[in-house]
Structure formats: C-alpha cells, structure tokens
Amino acid sequence: MGAVPSTPSLSGARPQDTAGYLIGSFVGEKSFPIGSDFWQKLLELPLNLHWPTHRVHEACKLFAQNNCNTRHLAKILIHLSWCLQECVSNSGALSEVYAKAVNAVYISSIFLKYLIENAQSNSIEEFHVSLNESEPAPNSFKTDQNIVSLVMHNVLNFIGSVEVSPNTYLLHQELLNFMLVAMSTQLLYGPAPGPTDMNPFIDAAMAQESSLVRLVVRRLLLNYIIRPRIPFNSASYPVFSGGSQPGVLQRVSSAAATFVLLPFNYLVSSTGDGPRNPLADISLHVLLILNYYRKSVVGDESLTDRSDDSATSDSLSKGKTYFSDNPYCKALENARDIEFDRVDIEGNAHSGSHVRLPFASLFDTLGMCLADETAVLLLYTLVHGNSDFLEYVLVRTDLDTLLMPILETLYNASKRTSNHIYILLIILLILSQDSSFNASIHKMVLPSIPWYQEHLLHRTSLGSLMVIILIRTVKYNLSKLRDLYLHTTCLATLANMAPHFHHLSAYASQRLVSLFYMLSRKYNKLAERIDDKMGKSGSFGQDSLAEDLSAELHIYTDFLRIVLEILNAILTYALPRNPEVIYAIMHRQEVFEPFKNHPRFSELIENIYMVLDFFNSRIDSQTHDGEWSVEKVLQLIIMNCRSWRVEGMKMFTQLYFSYEQESHPEEFFTPYIWRVALAHRGLSFNPSAINLFPVDLPIEASSRFALNFKDINMLML
To answer: Cα angle vertex 538, ends 536, 544, to 5°?
Structure first.
C-alpha cells in the first residue's frame, strides 16, 4: 500500500488522495481507538477513487497482517452496530446515517470475506473480533462484550424492524450481502456438521430472541413476495446525491452495481446473469441458509438423554453429539396465513407467536419463479415442513399456477441440474399423497400446452399432463441420468395418482402402457446379460459385476411390478372412468405376454388378462363389416364399461407412497443451497478453501469462484 501519514489530514487534500489515505490507514499498522474521529471521517467521506485489483488485493493482505494488533475489524463492526442502532431508534434518521451504515457494511464485508476464505484454523480468535483489554473506549461501551453477537443482533434487528423504503433499500440489500459473507464460514467445512466447525456469525444469529427471529423470517419472505425495486429517481431517494453535490453515494450509470467504497462487484463476478430482483433473490438465499443450518453440539449424558418437554435439543443424536434447535426453521414451519387468525380450541388467539404471511401472494410469487432453483427449494421447504401452507396449496382451485411451471421445468430436464429435478419430483410426490389433489387435477382442462413439442395436446386435463411428464421424466432418466431414486419417485407419484385417474387422455394412456414396455426392455437386457454370463462360466459367480447386475435386475423387477400395480389400480378402482386406458392395454396387449408366468408378476397380469378377455370377447361378438376404427372400438369399450363387474378380479392392497425426509437433511441441502447461492449471487470465493462440496471447475469457468480479484474494477470512495 505504501507509506501513509501518521494522522489523517483532510485540509487541502483531494477526495481521491484522502480516500487512499484513509483506507491505507484502516489496513495499516497504526491502531485507531474506537472513539477516534478517524472512524467518522472514514465512513462519512465521499469517495470515488478507482483502484486497480492488485492494489485491493494488497490492501486485504495488509489488513489481515495488521488486524491482530489494530483490531480494526472489530472496531468497524462496532461502528456498524452503532449506525444501525441509530437508524432503528430514529425512524426519521438522516440520509447521512444510512450512508455511514452502508459504508461500514461494505468495508466490513470486503475484509471479513478475505479473512474467512484465508482462515488457517477453526478458532474465532483468528478473526480478532474483539478489543484489546487496554483499548480506550467510550464509557457506554463494555470492552468485554461479544462483538459478533452485538453486530448480528443489530443487523438482524434492522432487517426485521425497519421497512424497506427508498431511503433504506440499499442498506437492507447490503446488510443481506454482509450476512451471506459472514455465514460463508460454512463453506470451509464438510457437509456433515461437526462440533469443531466454527460458524460464529450464524451461531450468533441462532441465539437471538424468538420474537426477533420471527420478524426476520417475515421480512425476508415479504422481500421475496413484494420484490421491491431499487428506486432510480434520485429526487425520491435522498441517499443518492444529485448534480455536482458531493455525497457518500454517487449516482452512477450502473446503479446497483457500483455505489460505494469497495463495491459489490468486488464480492461478485461480472457474469451478466443478474437476478431478476436483487433484494428478493438474496433475501431467499439468506433465509434458506438460516433454515437448514444445524449446529452440532457435544453434550454429556444429561443433555443427550433428555426426554422432557423443556429439552432444547432436537435429540438428533450422533454418538455424544446432538443438534441444537434452529429457531428460523421453527418460525418457517409455524408460519400462518395472514388472512386467518387461528384460534385454539379454548379460544386463545396466538397471532403474536407465529409469522403471519399472505399465503395467496406467496403462492402466486412461487408460481412465477419456479424456473429458479431457490424458489423450488422454498416451495419444498414449505410443503414439507409447514402443514398450514400445504393445506392452503391443496385447497386452491388454480393448482395450475404451481403445477404448470413445475411440469414445464421437468419437460426441459436436460437444461436443469439433477438436484433441481429431484426436488421438483419430491414436491409432486408430497402433493400426490392427498386424494383431493389427485382428483382435482383431472377436473382442470388445459386448452393447449404450447411448450410440449412431441405431440399436439389439445384440451388435456392437468392430471393427464402430469402423467405424461412423469413418464417422460422416467424415459429421460433411463437414457441420461440413470438415477434409480428418480425412477422410484416418479413411479411412486403415479401409483398415488392411479386410483383417482379420471378420463385419462389417449396419449397419456398410451404412454402408460409404453412405460411398462420401456422398463421391460431394460429388464430383458439385464436378464440376457446374466444368462450370457452364466452360460460362459457355468455359474453366476460372486464377482462385483455379477452382484451389480443381479441388484439392478432386482430393482427393475420392482419397477415393473409397480407399473403393473398402477395398471391394476386403474382397472380395479377407476375402469369405467378410463376407457382410453383399456384401449391402450388392448392395443399393446402383446407386451404383457412374456411375463404371464413370472412369479412376481403372474397374479397382477392375470387381472389384466381378465379385463382383456372381457372386452375382447365383447368386440369379437359384434358383427362388423369392414375395418374396425379407433372410434368404433372406443365406443364399444365405453358401452361395455357399464356391464363390467370387478368381483372376479384378485384384489391387491392399494399402493400408497409417502415422502419422508432423511434424518440429516442438512447434509444434502446445505451444500446445495450454497452452490446455488454462489452461482446466482456470483460470489467469488477461493475454491481451494471450499470443503462443503467438491469444486472441480474447468479453467474457463473458474472466474465465478476466482480468487478475489479476477477482472474486477474497483471503485473506491
């Protein structure tokens, strides 16, 4: 950074020189007391100096070397806390106060991020987020208080208590950026939380009062629902300075991209893929990270064996450790619709103990955004964890608002990540567990589906479209992903839906029978490979290939049986309502013939042939001149459905699949959410420091995670 004067002097200095001088002093060896006017000058001065990236890198390195003695990170976090306290306590606070807070949070984010991604130990002491005992401080400030807790309380208190307005928008956004940086310590550890993991800022967020937690969860969700836009009219946005008047925030052409001291484009790379709404986007990322955080705590027998109602542990025991409660997860699970004031059986209202949200607006917002993975994660989190929201979704008469974007995304599975597809399918499985949902989706008729290209779908029910897309997903998975769990989820959803099929379309019925044929071909190929192996060696053997083939054959045997049970459920419970299914089975009846004597399938196929025999005999008994047309055969099927009796069929227990989340969901969701957050926010983080998930980036793609300074123009205030 070069030599700097021993004390700041603003008289006669150009703003650019003063900016460089003050930042040089901030990262340098000299320690400025917490009460020094240096801090006011640093946070108040209008700065607009461009620094080259190598100079910023040098500043961060120098700061890391000197912070152990200067404790300047702790001090700027204290000043940030004081600015936020003033903003909260004085609703009419001057724009200068907000500007100081924005400067403080920018500077804090830049240097805290550098310390996190270059951390060498699992100790918070490495960050030196505390004051020296000899530090002179104002009488009102206790030097021994926990500064991490202080700043997180004030950050969360501002987010939860102060409305988003033209005056406060920028500060809200940058506080959320700060939270993302502060919580990025999770990237340093593996997906399974351990008792030695150091996440001081997110731990401090977990320790807040439940009333504040509810305010924060509500604000983050309202940001997502309302999607406030950054105001571009400087006359109504006093934080911006107009004309030639100097101000902390200079109005620049790129608006939200480069405002202040060390701009957000230092924290993010320039990918060109900006979010549709920056505040809504980062609010949801922060909420999801908070929601899925689990802290592993080492406890003695008295902690891990607690069984009384007052226990604060989730009792998710892993040996001698347990996971402490997550208040954000509980607040989201217990969120209620603002339209209904729930009253318990004794007539006691509980409006103050729950997050109150406009479920209607949340439902509509999710419907608009489900092409985005974070929206899908939020929808999953709500329908799985919040019974009130799930109930609300199931009683909506416009289920196409959610289902159409879900089905379109599944249709374009090749353009999506496997995790994205996985979560969407689980959402459909959860919804299919409700019989009213399975019935209602067949009552909604869609005039057309323009995005479906393989076949013209005209006046198709939502239920039929869902069947078509699920089967198409199985086919895609069979050829590309080969994920057995995706097969299972698709088939489980179809099985839940089957007894409730109502006037399934001809195309959906054809695809259902084709599903059996497609899986049977895979089954036959596996069986042939096993037979060939036995023929060559005289025995099947016990090598790894033989075991793999045998296990895969067993899996596809189960898949075929599920499809046969789906067909049986239709024929047993919904035959009169689905003549197109009968026609499709009759048209391809030869595909069932090879499995008539299979021990796992014979009883199920007997039922299918009982139906085939009934309708074949009715058609054979009809005298008809000329060719049988599809319409005439279908008309005959419809007519004979009235005389069909199910009594002769063998009855099987109706299949019903329910989704159960694994006992440690954070091991999947935490890495997934951070992957999405890094990609969407473009947050540049040293890839060699990431242990939360594997990082194997090609050279041409590495700029997204580039080490701090790749191709970034720094704007210094």
So the answer is: 75
